[in-house]
Structure formats: C-alpha cells, structure tokens
Request: fold
Amino acid sequence: IEGDVNFANSNYTEDHALALGAADHIEIVPGSSITYEGSNFGMGSYSSLTLEDVDIDVGGNLAIGSLGDLNIKSTSPNSPSTFSVGRYSDTDNIYLYADNIMQIDGLGFNSNTREIYAEAITVNMKDVTFPSTSEVMLRSQDGTLHFNNFNSYVPGAVNLTNVKYGTEVLEQSHFNGSAGHWDSSLSSPAGAAAVKIRAFPK
Reply:
C-alpha cells in the first residue's frame, strides 16, 4: 500500500466490514494514509506489521492485528500519526493486537473514539495521547506497569513513556491496584476508570 489510499463505499451503516489480511506480510510505505468510507475496517498479518507515519480514517470501528509484532511509529513528534474512527456515527472503537510485542512511538486518536483496546504479551508505548472522551484497556501477559522506560521496556508488562489521557501525563500515582489489575484515578465521561491495566486471564 502506497500513497493516499481511499476505499469508497456509500454504505455507512455499521452492518459490514472491509478486511485486509495477509498470510505473510502487509507492506505499507511510510507516509501513506488509508481511508475507508464505509463503516468498520480491519487489517491483519501473520508476520510483524509496521505502520510508520500512517494515518487511518474509517467510518466505523478500526481493528489492527499481527501474529508477530505490531510497530506503530511517527518520525515527527510534532505531528504524530492519527487513527480516526466514527466519521458516520456518534462514537466508535479501536482494537489493537499483537501476539508478541506491541510498540507504539507517537500516536493520537480522534475525539470520536469511545474505547481503545490494546493487547500483546508486551505493550510498550511512548508519546501516545488517548482522548479524554475514551475508555482505555491495556492488556499484557503479566499486567505489571512501568514508566519512562521505552528503550529498556520490561517484557510481559505495560510500559508507558509520556503517554497522556487528555492533557494529563500518566504516572504511577494515577493508578490504584496491584500487578495484573490497575485502574486509573482519572475518570472517563461515563464515570469509569479512564485507563485500565489487566493481565492475561489465568
């Protein structure tokens, strides 16, 4: 996939999905953008998947997964990649999955994002901003929580470096709980914990 790719679909009702899947590898040229004018959009690959300076805009929900590593990165800190959902609905969800390591360096989401779910054995995030309209679930193998260690992340954990909820930079003091079950003291508009950290089910 290269350049500004637009998949046209005049059906905006959330009764369908467009899925791009590869038994091996999906190659997306850095700086590309993907727009789906329909509703739900999914993309997955058997091998590792890298999205560098890639913006994605869909009418409904968005799901991205890899049975290897998932790498999302922005080369310009001042203009990070953006994932946008819910163009034709009130709010929608984003689901991110990696079978091994999920590494995100620079990513934002639009204000129509209701829920963000990210799962991998190891979750490592830097310069990510979750919108204050959202509820966030980050799930790793152990559900332990570590901060400011992007270049020396802890395997099996959720690792956060300059990750924001709204304008608030998340720190250990924002979380209550213990390994495997952390809830933020920050609340979503619905009144629930804005950010939750969980371990894989035993």
